[in-house]
Amino acid sequence: MRLAADLGVPVQIHTRSGIWTELDGANLTESNPAHPIHVSRLARALPSLKLVLCHAGYPHWWQAAAQLIADCPNCVLDVSNWNERLTEPHEIVARLAAWRSLLGIERILFASDQVSGPRFTGARSNLGKWVAFFRDLPAIAHAAGYRFTAEEASRILGRNAQAFYGLELEPFVHATEKSNHS
Question: Which residue range forms the structural domain that includes residue 128?
Answer without folding.
Answer: 2-181
